[in-house]
Amino acid sequence: MTSSPQTPNTDPPSSSACSPVQGSISDSYIRKDILSSLRNQTASYNRNSERKSTTLIGHTKAVNALQWSNSHCHLLASCGMDSSIYIWNVWNMEQKKARVFTFHTAAVKDIKWSEHGLSLLSCGYDCSSRLIDVEKGIETNVFKEDQVVGVVKFHPNNSNLFLSGGSKGVIRLWDIRSGNVVNQYVRALGPILDLEFMNDTKQFISSSDESKSNVSENSIIVWDVSRQLPLSNQIYVEAYTCPCIRHHPYDPYFVAQSNGNYIAIFSSKSPFRLDKYKRYESHAVSGFPVKCNFSTDGQTLASASSDGYIYLYNNKTCHLIKKIKAYEQPCIDVAFHPILSNVIASCSWNGEISVFE
Predict the structure, then answer these.
(1) What phi and psi, each to the nearest 5 degrees, are found at residue 347?
(2) Which terminus of the chain, N or C, has fewer Cβ atoms within 10 Å?
């Protein structure tokens, strides 16, 4: 990969925070039916998520993102406007709150688990991304920037690399080993709202807020990772921002959550055309940073919604399968469990986290 001018190096990790350890991250004391399903890599008895099995209370302000660990599937991470990151041992019979990290000095916008091991990447309003060793409860790297960092994304094939995007419209590819920027992607964009790799990992998609510039053709761009060049803009020319981009797990298309209160569908093959005949619409966005996610098997698309519901759509037909009442406040993020297909986690604007089975 080509190099770009070195921007901010890592800072030494902070040691001032009080102990983050609240409980165990082991699966030794979780529900027996869940443990059996996780160890056998099988889904639970009931395919349809409807019953709220667990409410996780800890955040004092809006929760911005949550994600299940793929390597330790009983663990759920969340981050919020209260500047904190929580690790939940969701089915632990004694203490569900396993870790509380307060390394960030301002609101935390995004979190991502590494595909391997117990490392967690976070970013936020303190103009930094941070790498955390969840097991040891320590911060191992700080990647400082000159912008609020709104989104981070590990490279799917190399967990030593990650993308970051921020408020000044700059996207950077970082190498965790050196703490330096490998590539930089600049195109006079508005704040970066989301980043997503294509399935071949040679390209990625960015979504940015172009509402102030009135150049909506730049709101979604496909980039070449190594050449640092945009491959296509004018993909989405509607005058709506898209707070969330998700690529289908297997099929050659990606979706964009639109503030027009629908999810748009795009081909992931050049010229990345918008599907003008199909879209997912029943939920509401209404200016909130509402996210969506595919199930692991790709058959279902779940969307959060500003009306407090979770909406489940058939992936192929775009028809609404059902909606689940989760909160009185807006529902912000939804995440399917990586093994248990009937389990969905969600979070709300008032700080509540729920797990449905």
Answers:
(1) -140, 160
(2) N
In a domain, 125, yes or no: yes
Instruction: Give the C-alpha separation, 81 to 64, whole Å.
Output: 7
Long-range contact pairs involving 281-286 (C-beta distance under 8 Å, separation at least 24): 281/318, 282/311, 282/313, 282/320, 282/323, 283/307, 283/309, 283/311, 283/323, 285/243, 285/257, 285/258, 285/259, 285/260, 285/261, 286/259, 286/261, 286/330
Location of structure tokens 């091991």: 117
C-alpha to C-alpha distance for 71 and 33, rounded to whole angstroms: 19
Percent of the chain with pLDDT over 70: 91
For 153, residues 6+ apart whose C-beta sits below 8 A from its C-beta are 112, 162, 163, 164, 195, 196, 197, 204
**Domain membership flag for residue 111:** yes
Question: How many domains are contained in the chain?
Answer: 1
The range of the structural domain enclosing residue 89 comes to 59-186
The CB density around residue 271, as the number of other CB atoms within 10 Å, is 10
Lateral strand order in the sheet of 203-208: 192-197, 203-208, 220-224, 229-232
Q: Give domain status of residue 99, yes or no.
A: yes
Show the tokens assigned to 196: 């997503």
Is 354 part of any domain? no
Counting Cβ atoms within 10 Å, is residue 185 exposed (0-12), middle (13-18) or buried (19+)? buried
- CA nearest neighbour of 161 among 86, 111, 225, 104: 225
Q: Is the pLDDT of residue 139 over 50?
A: yes
Tell me the helices (H) and strands (E) count for the chain, helix number first: 1, 28
In order of 186, 188, 192, 305, 310, the CA distances from 170 in angstroms are 5, 8, 7, 28, 32
Instruction: Look at the block and give the residue holding tokens 């970066």.
Output: 192
Nearest-5° angle of CA 264, CA 315, CA 222?
Answer: 40
254 HSE (CA, 13 A, CB side): 31
Q: What is the pLDDT of residues 47-73, one digit of tens each?
A: 555 677 899 999 999 999 999 999 999
What's the predicted TM-score (pTM) here?
Answer: 0.91
